[in-house]
Amino acid sequence: MNKRETAQISEKQKTDVLIVGAGPAGLAAAVRLYELGIHDILVIERENRPGGILRQCIHDGFGVTRFGESLTGPEYASRFIAKALEYGIRIISNAAVTDITADREVTVVSREGRTIWQAKAVILAMGCRERTRGAAAIPGERPCGVFTAGVAQAYINIYNRMPARETVILGSGDIGMIMARRLTLEGAHVKAVYEIQPYPSGLPRNIRQCLLDYDIPLILSHTVTQIHGSRRLEGVTVSEVDETLRPVPGTDEYIPCDTLILSVGLIPENELSLDAGVSLDPRTHGAFVDEHFQTDVPGIFAAGNVLHVHDLVDFVSKEAEAMAEAVKSYLEEGILAKGGIKIIAGEGIHHTVPQAAEGREPFTLSLRVRRPMRDVTICARQGNEILGRKKMKQALPAEMIWLPLKPLKGTEDVEVYVE
Ligand SMILES: Cc1cc2nc3c(=O)[nH]c(=O)nc-3n(C[C@H](O)[C@H](O)[C@H](O)COP(=O)(O)OP(=O)(O)OC[C@H]3O[C@@H](n4cnc5c(N)ncnc54)[C@H](O)[C@@H]3O)c2cc1C
After folding, report:
1. Would the CB of 269 count as within 6 Å of ligand 1?
2. CATH number belonging to domain 132-264
3. pLDDT beyond 60 at 212
4. 3-class secondary structure for the chain?
5. Per-residue model confidence (pLDDT) at position 137
6. How far is the CA of 23 from the centre of ligand 1 (A)?
7. Distance between Cα 268 and ligand 1 center (Å)
8. For residue 163, how far is its CA from the centre of ligand 1 (angstroms)?
9. Which whole number is the average pLDDT over 257-274?
10. How many A from CA of 306 to the centre of ligand 1?
11. Is the C-beta atom of 319 inside 6 A of ligand 1?
């Protein structure tokens, strides 16, 4: 280590709770912790201001559940930022957490240098990132004009740049549909939204408000099979897919366009979690947690999109607040009992959060189904004991489902399934 590096590392500093990320999850956790009497909190944010991805979501529709009114993303975030400022919670922006150890030593890098923090509890609230063309493995040339929906959203809403004229959107995720509407309002022509699955992957309200209201076609069971263009995108080939999602020969259609927007999924941002030795669930790509939102590394908690991708930000805030209560208990009473009873995602269920529980008190499972279903009952059972049931007229993979459970008994696994 050279002299400069030595100078840049200050002495190890201490804090009760260090929160990684000042998005809706990190902010809600910080505010609730403060209200619960935990005041030694530090929030680290790598962007130049707090708010997370909501800074670029200028459309409305946020906060309907929580505040009973429809806010824009920045308005929703500002309610939590205002509270954090009022309480004097320390938020350091323009600083990135680059490493977390299992004993909660956190490395933070900023223009001022590198600081090591020793925290009693660490909250992972890093959000998620978008799947890119590479992750979706779309063949063809590599011209410019292929963007993820979030990047296109940032160009328009933050940098005031128009990235598209003749546009094709791949994937019917919520951000893609919201961008179909935004691009149309800004003067671009959206030819269609193509979705590989036989059903849309976003929320029904976005299909209505962003596609149907603007006459933008949604074409199911189709995908982009080739990208054409040398410098700028010139067109894409679109093909129908069969039930195994493979392109059907002879169904190719060339569509001229200058922009392809991808809305093909979000991936929780968990590199730091892995560094800390946290185990990840291959279904959610987030941490395995118990009903206290504690990972399998004691003292490290997770909430928000880094834990599992949420449909609405209102639920992110609610989850982070519930986690804050558990963090307070952890700080005051030491290690919370480890959730030992496994919760198994059975027939028709894609995943559950938590994936295991101690279950001494009632708690609520969050889950998603595998495919759209009508007139079903979601059931949780431990042996012969039914712990919770929910009848649903319609269950969609796009929507998170909440299932309150009775306390668990014994050690047998809990199975969650669709009847
Ligand atoms: C592009 C995009 C658009 C979206 N649009 C909508 C929408 O229109 N409506 C809706 O309901 N939901 C939308 N969502 C979902 C939305 O992300 C969530 O509802 C909500 O913002 C999740 O909150 P979060 O705090 O978990 O994550 P985020 O909002 O992503 O916040 C995470 C924060 O952690 C910071 N961070 C990450 N790693 C580090 C690190 N190593 N060090 C320091 N800081 C770090 C990030 O900079 C970020 O500020 C969108 C998501 C994306 C990706």
Report:
1. yes
2. 3.50.50.60
3. yes
4. CCHHHHHHECCCEEEEEEEECCCHHHHHHHHHHHHCCCCCEEEECCCCCCCHHHHHCCCEEECHHHHCCCEEHHHHHHHHHHHHHHHCCEEECCCEEEEECCCCEEEEEECCEEEEEEEEEEEECCCEEECCHHHHCCCECCCECEEEHHHHHHHHHCCCCCCCCEEEEECCCHHHHHHHHHHHHCCCEEEEEECCCCCCCCCHHHHHHHHHHHCCCEECCEEEEEEECCCECCEEEEEEECCCCCECCCCCEEEECCEEEECCCEEECCHHHHHCCCCECCCCCCECCCCCCECCCCCEEECHHHCCCCCCHHHHHHHHHHHHHHHHHHHHHCCCCCCCEEEEECCCEEEEECCEECCCCCEEEEEEECCCEEEEEEEEEECCEEEEEEEEEEECCCCCEEEEECCCCCCCCEEEEEC
5. 86
6. 6
7. 10
8. 22
9. 96
10. 9
11. no
pLDDT in tens, 96-131: 999 999 999 999 999 999 999 999 999 999 999 999
CA of residue 99 to ligand 1 center, whole Å? 20
The CB of 30 under 6 Å from ligand 1? The reply is no
CATH, range 12-130+265-337? 3.50.50.60
Which numbered atom of ligand 1 lies nearest the CA of 50? 49
96 lines ligand 1 (CB under 6 A): yes
Does 12-130+265-337 match 132-264 in CATH topology? Answer: yes
**Average pLDDT along the chain:** 94
> Is the C-beta atom of 15 inside 6 A of ligand 1?
no
What percentage of the chain carries pLDDT values higher than 70?
96
Domain ranges of the chain: 12-130+265-337, 132-264, 339-419
* Ligand 1 geometric centre to CA of 123 (Å): 15
pLDDT (average), residues 236-250: 96
Architecture of domain 339-419: Sandwich (2.60)
pTM of the predicted model, to two decimals?
0.93
Tokens 């030819």 — which residue? 191
Asked whether 123 lines ligand 1 (CB < 6 A), one says no
Q: Is the CB of 50 under 6 A from ligand 1?
A: no
